[in-house]
Amino acid sequence: MVASQLPYLRRYARALTGSQGSGDRYAVATLEAVLADPSAIAGASDPRVALFRVFHSVWGSSGAPVAEAEDRLAARAQAHLATLTPNSREALLLHSIEGFSLAQIGEIIDTDEAEAGELVNHALREMEASVAGRVLVIEDEAIIAMDISGIVEGMGHKVTGIARTHAGAVELAARDKPDLILADIQLADNSSGIEAVNEILGQFDDIPVIFVTAFPERLLTGDRPEPAFLINKPYTEEQVRSAVSQAMFFASTETLAA
Fold first, then answer.
1. Element (H, E) at 139
2. Full domain range(s) for residue 85
3. Residue 206, domain CATH
């Protein structure tokens, strides 16, 4: 059970802390805590909830830190985080990205279901009101591209363009530098969305990236630099809104190895 959930725990930890390295360290610390006390998982009615609850215990005992700011944009993002209602971002990620119910979130972060719902709503309002910018969409399926663009524009952001290929994405980014890239993994010409993003980040290394994929576990192996922000296909509007808000806050993404 723990092994099958580890990629998703790492995804959550990365989005919560703002970087792959920091998130993975807390995921490892969570596994160490489970090994030290197997009953925390083995005796639970819902082992997945129990695993995330152990993570929160470990993370909270460390002061619930985010990654150290490596640049001006990350520092600004972390200053924004300090203004959010406590536990609201955690509740939002658990609900919209990891798919926990409000009752499960309450159990994970030690609150009740009603309060968990309020925290999710607080996070959406506070984060979306704080940051707006320009978004480049890299997606070869026209209907999905239009849907994502509509969600992003509905949040108050501007879509700088939609690219279907590697070359098109690089050209659009060079013409109008985005504040955020939202990219599929596989593009129309069989090129890699990861390769396109890497080339763009070679010119602009301070752009946050969200990857959209039907196979998230393939990008969450720990064998190479990986994205902090990753959403599944098929996605929901809430997942896109949450990931966009989170990524805009941190405004930093590590270059991926294609």
1. none
2. 69-130
3. 3.40.50.2300
Residue 255 lies in a domain: no
- Residues 137 and 148: beta-carbon distance below 8 Å: yes
Residue with tokens 């994205």: 227
Torsion angle in degrees (nearest 10) through CA of 244, 250, 252, 253: -50
Ramachandran bin of 118, using left for φ above 0, alpha for ψ from -120 to 50, beta for the remaining angles: alpha
pLDDT exceeds 50 at position 254? no
Q: Is residue 45, in this structure, part of any structural domain at all?
A: yes
* Residue 256 in domain: no
Measured CA distances, 126 to 81, 141, 184 (Å): 10, 31, 27
| 183 DSSP β-pair partners | 138, 211
Tell how many helices (H) and how many strands (E) occur in the chain: 12, 5
The 10s digit of each residue's pLDDT in 115-142 is: 999 998 888 777 666 667 899 999 999 9
| Mean pLDDT lowest among 177-181, 193-197, 252-256 | 252-256
Bridge partner list, 213: 232
